[in-house]
Amino acid sequence: MSETKIKITNLKKAFGRKVVLDGVDLEVKKGESLVVIGGSGTGKSVLIKCIQGILVPETGSIKIDNNEIVGVNEKQKEEMHAKMGMLFQGGALFDSLSVWENVAFGLIENQKMPKKEAKLAAINVLRQVGLAPDVADLSPSELSGGMQKRVGLARAIATKPEIIFFDEPTTGLDPIMSDVINDLIIESVKGLGATALTITHDMASARKIADRIAMLYKGKIIWQGTVKEMDKTDNPYVCQFIHGSSKGPIKVEV
């Protein structure tokens, strides 16, 4: 078994009386692609924010490379963030910056790379996600949704992070472009040898990019396994979710 990259133990996070994470236990191995599935509002995004140190849990442990990250100081947090990349759900590109400046943001701001060198690096990464060099000087608003998502992916991998987070990477894309993005995610993660943690409710995406899948429900990880194991499971919550059925133990709150 490969070594553990991220280890989460008994993680709890609440907002007032609303308990979002209620004792999450989860491990992600080095170089593994783990996909966390679950309905809207089940705490998937909160889980990622806790791992990134954006949110502080009430109790529990989060270890990266066997180092506890809950409660670390700002300097330690910056060092931790330098190991991470993220593809945001909506792309989250800076409108005031050109495409290449978006891609090179971490290189310039965090790694203090000179702008001329950073632009060349950004163009190279854009090529890796299938975008031509002439896209570099455009503004994000001049790009289609699929192209914006590719730029977001380029930014996520530009700093060569050890851990990459993907937040609903195929939301808003048509099925063909979704599959293109899934392929690029696989190529990018494997190319870097990175550890990937994806949150999604797109089962086609989950099946394609996951080495392992975990389901989050009512603040806990209620099942985890491979795609093959998921298709054979008799867990009623997993079965209902992956088949998109209105009938089952998961009740939609209205």
Task: Please describe what this structure looks like.
The protein is an alpha/beta fold and 254 residues long. Helix content is 37%, strand content 25%. Strands 6-7-8-3-9-10 form a six-stranded mixed sheet, with helices on both faces. Strands 2-1-4-5 form a four-stranded antiparallel sheet, with helices on one face. The protein is globular. The N and C termini lie far apart (44 Å).
What is the element layout, followed by pairings?
Layout: E1 4-15, E2 18-29, E3 33-37, H1 44-52, E4 59-64, E5 67-68, H2 74-81, E6 84-87, H3 99-103, H4 105-109, H5 115-128, H6 145-158, E7 163-167, H7 175-192, E8 195-200, H8 203-209, E9 212-217, E10 220-225, H9 227-232, H10 236-243
Parallel strand pairs: 3-8, 3-9, 6-7, 7-8
Antiparallel strand pairs: 1-2, 1-4, 4-5, 9-10
Supply the key terms.
four-stranded antiparallel sheet; 10 strands; alpha/beta; 254 residues; 37% helix
Shape: globular
Mean pLDDT: 91
From the alpha-carbon coordinates, what is the Rg to the nearest angstrom? 18 Å
Kindly report how far apart the N and C termini lie.
Answer: 44 Å
Given the structure, what is the number of helices? 10
The portion of residues forming beta strands comes to 25-35%
Number of strands: 10
Content-based structural category? alpha/beta
Sheet with the most strands: spatial strand order: 6-7-8-3-9-10
Order of helices and strands: EEEHEEHEHHHHEHEHEEHH
Poorly predicted spans? none
* Main sheet: strands, sense, barrel: 6 strands, mixed
Oligomeric composition of the shown chains: single chain
Helix content: 25-40%
